[in-house]
Specification:
- By secondary structure, this protein is an alpha/beta fold.
- The strands form 10 sheets. Strands 7, 8, 9, 10, 11, 12, 13, 14, 15, 16 and 17 form an 11-stranded parallel beta sheet that branches.
- A hairpin with a 6-residue loop joins β3 and β4.
Length: 549
C-alpha cells in the first residue's frame, strides 16, 4: 500500500488511481477497493441532494399542505420538518427483518418507500418571515434562499452565510448590500463582483482585496478610486461613476462584456484560494494534504471532496462540516461513516440516509434519531447486530453490492433538479445515458403585453401585479415588493429571468472541472489546475505573488 494503484473505472472504462492513503483507509475497515472513479462517484453522490427545487406536497403525518424538496410523484412519504424532528413518531416502527433471499438494495429501496423523510432541511424555530427556503438556519425576512445560515433580508441566494441584504448572489460570507456577486467575503455594497475579500462600494471587481470605490478592476489590493485598473483622483472617479447607469439592463450588459474582455488580459493563479500546503483543486483555503478538493477550507488529509469545511481524513465526501474519516458520503458533521447520505451528528454508519442526533453503529437505516445497533430500522442487541452485519456484508460482497454508493434509481431527485447539476452539469441525453432520472419542465404557453423597462427608474409599482415571462425559459414569474424595493435602493435593473433559473445559473459557476497538468506561464514549472484555456496566463503561487502583488 505504499504505491498508487491503477484501476479501470466500471463506468467510463478509463483508468483511475487509488492513493496509498485511501488504500490504507479501506484495508483498515475491510472495505473493497472502489470500481468507480472518484469523479464519477462524486457526481453520483451529488445526485442524491436537492436544496433549490421545492414542490407542493402533503405531510404524511398531519395531511397538511407543505413544501417539499422531494418530488411527491416519487412515492416517498414526507413529514413537515417540525414533526419529523419531534418525538411524535419513531422510525424503528418501520423496521423489517433482513431477508437473505433478496439483494440488500432491493430491501433498502422498499424501506425507503415507507419511512418518512423530512420535507425540507430547516430549523423552523429559527426561521422568521422567510418563505421558500431550504438548507436554512436562523433566517429573517429571506425569500428563495438555499443553504443559507444566520442571515436576513436576502433573496435568490445560494450558499450565503452571516449576511444581510444579499441578492442574486452565491457563496457570500459576512457581507451586506451586495447584488449579482459570486464568492465574496466580508464585503459591503458591491455590484457584480467575484472572488473579492473585504471590498466595499464598488462594481465589477475580480480577485480584489481591501478595495473600495473601484470599478472594473482586476487583481488589485488596498486600492481606492481605480477605474478599470487605472488610478484616478476622487473627483475624476466620482465623475465617471455618475456617468455609468447600472440601473439600465443595456448598460449593465455593455459593462459586463467590457469587464469580461479586460479580465482575459490579466494573469490568474493556478487555483483560487490561499494558504494551502501540498494540496490540489480549486477554491481552497487553509488546507493541508488535500487533493482534488473543491470549495474546501480548514481541512487536512482529504481527497476528492466538494464543499468540505474543517474535515479530516475523508474521501469522496460532499457538503460536510467537521467530518472525519468519511468515505463516499454526503452532508453533515459525522465520524467514520461510509456510503451515507444526509446524515448529521452520527458515527459508525454504513448505507444510512437521513439519520441524525447521535445515531451510531447502524446499517441500512433511514430517518433514525438517537439509535444504535439497528439494521433496516430494526433494533438488535450489540451481539446480534455484529453477528448479522458480518453475514450481510458477506452476501453483499458476493453480489457486488458492497463497494458503491446507493443505486442511482434510489435517489428521490431528478438529476437536473439535484446539486449534481450545479457541479457536474449534463444534458438530458447524457444524464439518462448514465442512469440518472430527469424531469422536463412543463412550461405553460403564455404571452404578456407587459414590457419591463430598461431602467429601474422607469419601473412603476404596477409591476408587482404583473405575471412576467422568463426570457430564458418562458416560465412565469413575479416580482415581489421586497425585490422591487431592493433594486430601487441599489439602483440595479429588474430581472428578466425567473428566480430559480438565476440561482441555478449562478450555482453552475462552480462546476467541478478535472485537474490537468500545465506549465506555469512564467517559470514553466508544472502545476495542477482546472484552467486549461491556452490563452489564459496561469501562474504558480510564487510567480503570481511576484507578478501580481
Amino acid at each position: 500500500m505504499n504505491n498508487p494503484m491503477e484501476i479501470t473505472c466500471a463506468i467510463t472504462g478509463k483508468p483511475f488511481t487509488i492513493s496509498p492513503r485511501k488504500q490504507k483507509y479501506l484495508a483498515e475497515r475491510n472495505l473493497p477497493l472502489p470500481r468507480v472513479a472518484s469523479w464519477e462517484t462524486l457526481k453520483w453522490i451529488e445526485s442524491f441532494r436537492n436544496r433549490i427545487y421545492l414542490y407542493n406536497a402533503t405531510c404524511a403525518f398531519s395531511s397538511k399542505a407543505i413544501l417539499s424538496c422531494i418530488p411527491p410523484e416519487n412515492g416517498i412519504p414526507v413529514y413537515d420538518t417540525n414533526i419529523w424532528n419531534s418525538e411524535q413518531w419513531d422510525a424503528t416502527n418501520y423496521g423489517i427483518d433482513y431477508d437473505f433471499s433478496k439483494p440488500f438494495f432491493v430491501q433498502l429501496a422498499a424501506l425507503m418507500k415507507k419511512v418518512p423523510l423530512p420535507a425540507v432541511t430547516v430549523v423552523e424555530s429559527t426561521i422568521e418571515n422567510s418563505p421558500y427556503v431550504n438548507g436554512a438556519v436562523n433566517l429573517k425576512n429571506c425569500y428563495l434562499t438555499f443553504i443559507c445560515l444566520d442571515s436576513q433580508d436576502c433573496m435568490f441566494a445560494w450558499n450565503v452565510f452571516n449576511s444581510s441584504q444579499v441578492v442574486d448572489s452565491v457563496y457570500c460570507y459576512f457581507s451586506e448590500l451586495c447584488f449579482g456577486c459570486i464568492d465574496i467575503d466580508h464585503c459591503y455594497n458591491l455590484l457584480f463582483c467575484e472572488s473579492c475579500i473585504r471590498c466595499s462600494d464598488s462594481a465589477f471587481l475580480f480577485n480584489c482585496q481591501a478595495c473600495k470605490n473601484c470599478f472594473g478592476c482586476v487583481n488589485l489590493s488596498n486600492k481606492e478610486y481605480c477605474w478599470y485598473n487605472e488610478q484616478l483622483s476622487k473627483e475624476e472617479f466620482e465623475k465617471r461613476r455618475k456617468s455609468v447607469n447600472l440601473g439600465s439592463k443595456n448598460t449593465v450588459a455593455e459593462e459586463e462584456k467590457r469587464f469580461k474582455d479586460l479580465r482575459k488580459k490579466f494573469p490568474i493563479k493556478y487555483y483560487r484560494g490561499k494558504n494551502i500546503e501540498n494540496s490540489s483543486g480549486n477554491y481552497l483555503l487553509n488546507s493541508k494534504n488535500c487533493h482534488h478538493c473543491y470549495l474546501t477550507s480548514d481541512s487536512q488529509d482529504c481527497e476528492d471532496c466538494i464543499i468540505s469545511l474543517q474535515a479530516k481524513d475523508s474521501f469522496c465526501v460532499s457538503s460536510n462540516r467537521g467530518a472525519e474519516l468519511l468515505y463516499n458520503c454526503q452532508s453533515g458533521s459525522n465520524y467514520d461513516n461510509q456510503f451515507c447520505n444526509e446524515c448529521l451528528f452520527t458515527k459508525n454508519l454504513q448505507y444510512c440516509l437521513y439519520c441524525t442526533n447521535g445515531t451510531s453503529d447502524c446499517f441500512g437505516c433511514i430517518s433514525l434519531r438517537k439509535k444504535q445497533y439497528c439494521i433496516l430500522n430494526k433494533q438488535y442487541s450489540k451481539e446480534e447486530y455484529f453477528s448479522l452485519i458480518a453475514k450481510i456484508k458477506g452476501q453483499m460482497l458476493a453480489n457486488d453490492e458492497y463497494q458503491d454508493f446507493f443505486p442511482k434509481e434510489m435517489s428521490p431527485f431528478y438529476y437536473n433538479h439535484s446539486e449534481a447539476m450545479s457541479f457536474f452539469p449534463l444534458t438530458k441525453e447524457q444524464a439518462l445515458a448514465q442512469g440518472f432520472k430527469w424531469q422536463d419542465d412543463t412550461i405553460e404557453p403564455f404571452t404578456t403585453t407587459y414590457h419591463i423597462p430598461d431602467d429601474i427608474k422607469d419601473v412603476k409599482d404596477d409591476i408587482l401585479e404583473q405575471t412576467l415571462k422568463c426570457q430564458k425559459t418562458g416560465k412565469k414569474y413575479r416580482i415581489v415588493k421586497q425585490e422591487l424595493e431592493f433594486c430601487r435602493k441599489m439602483g440595479v435593473p429588474i430581472a428578466t429571468i425567473a428566480p430559480i433559473e438565476r440561482i441555478t445559473e449562478r450555482s453552475q459557476f462552480f462546476a467541478v472541472h478535472p485537474l490537468q497538468t500545465r506549465a506555469c506561464s512564467h517559470c514553466l514549472q508544472p502545476v495542477e489546475t482546472v484552467y486549461t484555456d491556452p490563452e489564459l496566463e496561469v501562474l504558480c503561487e510564487s510567480c503570481y505573488q511576484q507578478k501580481v502583488f
